[in-house]
Amino acid sequence: MTQRELNMQAVDLRPLKIGNIEIGFPVVQAALSGYSDWPMRVIARRLGASYTVCEVMLDQFLTSLKERKRTSHFLHISDEEHPVGGQLMGADPENFAAGAVKLVQAGFDIIDINFGCPVKKVLGRCRGGFHLGQPDIALEIVRRTREAVPDEIPVTVKMRRGIDDSAESYDNFFKILDGAFDIGVAGITVHGRTVTQRYIGPSKWEFLKEVKAQAGDNIILGSGDLFTAQDCLDMIEQTGVDGVTVARGAIGNPWIFNQTRALAAGKPLPDPPSLHMQREVIREHYVLAELLYGETRVGPLMRKFGIKYSILHPEFKAVRSAFVKIRSREEWEAVLAKFYSEDLPGCHPDGKMHKASGSGNNSNKAKDDQSESGSP
Ligand SMILES: Cc1cc2nc3c(=O)[nH]c(=O)nc-3n(C[C@H](O)[C@H](O)[C@H](O)COP(=O)(O)O)c2cc1C
To answer: Is residue 132 pLDDT above 70, yes or no?
Structure first.
């Protein structure tokens, strides 16, 4: 047995439970505006994510939603992906609750409230991260949402660690955290960056540790800077959080979930997927997206995913340039034929590349309002 294998030890992870919902393996797919649509969530589930959260939706968007074909994809859920979370964002407590009911009707198993979005336009409209500066209204939103959603459906909250680094912001964070648990939320996800920080600088994991210590038995999920399987286990070990939500690190690398399962089981880190393994998933992703969006819309929508998948390719620059231009299934297949025919070993992603490219070419209907894109 090699020294490396001797060093391998299974990690004793507590299975994650949110309210009455058994999630199991505590490494889940985060909400990602412009990305965590049905195809991305299904791929993540098939590759080991135990739970996924849909991209954020506006309460107003949900309450005015008709059976229009162009936007109905936002609420598309399939049997294999349960449990799946729906997330919403808004300004007004009453409207928020009405939006949450729409998510329940659509079939989401958990309703997640977004108090984290740092996009200027969102903050300017008193949504997302803006609420971290007004705990009373934030808690009113939580209360109304909890009342409106059936008891058996857990309500959770997503927060950044504050608006900024001020003492007031710190106090507000804990007012909301404690108040939300008192109201009955089943878990809170904390991203260890402030709203003003956006994506500049690291996510403060020591803060997550403090939050978990304060939350006691209440469920805390950690977020921020999870780019490898080892990062996921390190965050759990270093902070004591009950689970972690993989965000940018899962875009183009859904294998991260099974890799983390392997490491947690005491096995060596699996090799990155070979080019044929990648090709199979990239193709599958396109097929799912085509089912959802239709033949004419799917090509441009898939570019951003192709760009992210290219990160695992040894010739990533050339592959990325090829994916940037695709418009149709034929062009997608041509890229696969050119770059993925030989079954070469793939590469593990370099976290820095992800960090440099947080934003997506979000082309959904409520794009400007919902996206966290623009993050450096
Ligand atoms: C493009 C993009 C879109 C995001 N969309 C959402 C969202 O809809 N809802 C949400 O709660 N967080 C959203 N986030 C924040 C992530 O879930 C996560 O908290 C953040 O990216 C930190 O994790 P990371 O450093 O591992 O990427 C988004 C982040 C990015 C980069």
So the answer is: yes
Q: Supply the pLDDT for residue 63.
A: 85
Which pLDDT score, from 0 to 100, does residue 202 have?
93
Based on the fold, state whether residues 84 and 123 are members of the same structural domain: yes
**Mean pLDDT, the chain, whole residue set:** 89
Mean of pLDDT values over 55-72: 78
Same structural domain, 78 and 178: yes
| Buried/exposed code over 308-333 (b: 16+ C-beta within 10 A; e: otherwise) | bbbbbbeebeebbebbeebeebeebe
Write out the two tokens for 238.
């270093």
Is 33 close to ligand 1, i.e. is its CB under 6 Å away? yes
Tens digits of residue pLDDT in 150-163: 999 999 999 999 99
Q: How far is the CA of 358 from the centre of ligand 1 (A)?
A: 8
Q: Where does residue 237 rank: exposed (0-12), middle (13-18), buried (19+ CB within 10 A)?
A: exposed
The identity of residue 255, as a single letter, is W
**Whether residue 195 is found in the same domain as residue 52:** yes
31 to each of 9, 108, 220, 337, 366, how far by Cα in Å?
A: 31, 13, 16, 32, 15
The residue whose CB lies within 8 Å of the most ligand 1 atoms, and thus the one to mutate among 40, 55, 191, 251, is 191
One domain for residues 211 and 159: yes
Residue 374 included in any domain: no
What does the pLDDT read at residue 128?
A: 76
